[in-house]
Amino acid sequence: MTASPVFLAVALSLVSAVCYATAAVVQERTAAGTPDLRDALTRVSWWWAVLLNATGALLHVVALRYGPLTLVQPLGALTLVVAVPLGSLAARRRTSGTQWRGMALTLVGLTALLTATASGNAPDSTLRTTEVLLIALAAATAILALIRIAPSGLGFAAASGIASGVGSTLAQKLAVGPAVSWSAAVVAVLTVSFAAAGLMLSQKAYRSGLGGPLALLTLVNPVTASVIGITLLGEGFQYGATGTLLALAGAAAAARGVVLLSRSQSHHDHPDGGYGRPRVPRPAKAETVPGLRPTRLFTGTSRAT
To answer: Residue 117: how many CB atoms within 10 A of its CB?
Structure first.
């Protein structure tokens, strides 16, 4: 008995999500202990994260050979579902009730999406070369605009989500389209470029913590790829209007779950409300007596004389 294409796509996507989630936790912990990206590149842990991301990407590409973008990409939200308990375990803290509710909503929403998109058939259409170039140009413009307008953790996360989503979309052409051609070579270069950009941007995003950036990245990635799949590849949902409503309801539930996971995880990441760095208390001002002049001792402290 042979497995259906959809079963293979889902199984590969699940393993890919575990790889991505583990890599995200390692990247966040590496970012927390390094002042900038250059220092992160010297850490062995960062290269382990690169290997995990590469493994997840490879499994993701293979999954795209057996399932449509509208099926495979939403399953990427499982990355956050896996990363939350992993992050809690790495930080030696308990998973909160809000996090459990977020995971439950995300899983329920993804199940609804899976029901509406799992047609049982492997994808057979790919983007034309002109469409690939237009998508790459539009995505590059959006990424540069986000970096320039919102150079923060969430800005980098949104840019990373766009880069990763476009990279997955282009990888689908490599997985389904002809193996050897000049256009395939161009797509391969663009795919690697967007995947690398997504990795670097996510590393900068995780300097603001894991929860918020990973949640935004997890939402932007499938939305980007699914919009392309629906508008340019003609991918849709089963069961007509009922399937569309089911998919929309599932997407809303999954989005709500991701928001809950983001809020709870961000609170644990930065209980002081900061941006990834603990607040340093200011030294108390030396008390002075009116009419006396403070003098500085050789120890660097002050006393009234």
So the answer is: 27
Single out the residue of 299, 304, 300 nearest to residue 288, CA to CA. Answer: 304
Asked if residue 76 lies in contact with residue 20, where contact means CB atoms within 8 angstroms, the answer is yes
Judged against a pLDDT cut of 60, whether residue 107 lies above it is answered with yes
CA dist 268 and 223 (Å) reads 27
What is the enclosing helix (H) or strand (E) of 302? strand 302-304
Joined tokens for residue 245: 């409503």
Which residues, other chains included, contact 290 with Cβ-Cβ below 8 Å and sequence gap of 6+?
Answer: none
The helix/strand count (H/E) of the chain reads as 11, 2
Distance CA 49, CA 214 (A): 15
* Cα–Cα distance for residue pair 191/178, rounded to 1 Å: 16
Residues 35-80: tens digit of each pLDDT: 666 777 778 888 888 899 889 888 888 887 887 777 787 777 778 7
Which helix (H) or strand (E) element contains residue 303?
Answer: strand 302-304
Q: Provide the Cα torsion 27, 205, 114, 139; round to 10°.
A: -120
Is residue 62 packed enough to be buried (19+ CB in 10 Å), middle (13-18) or exposed (0-12)?
A: middle
Q: Is the pTM of this model over 0.70?
A: no
For residue 293, pLDDT over 80 is answered with no
Residue 37 near residue 203 (C-beta atoms within 8 A): yes
Evaluate whether 215 touches 261 at the Cβ level (below 8 Å).
yes
Containing 155, the helix (H) or strand (E) segment is helix 153-176
Residue 119 near residue 238 (C-beta atoms within 8 A): yes
Distance, CA of 156 to CA of 67 (rounded, Å): 29
Measured CA distances, 8 to 52, 62, 234 (Å): 20, 9, 22
Strand pairing report for 294-296 and 302-304:
antiparallel
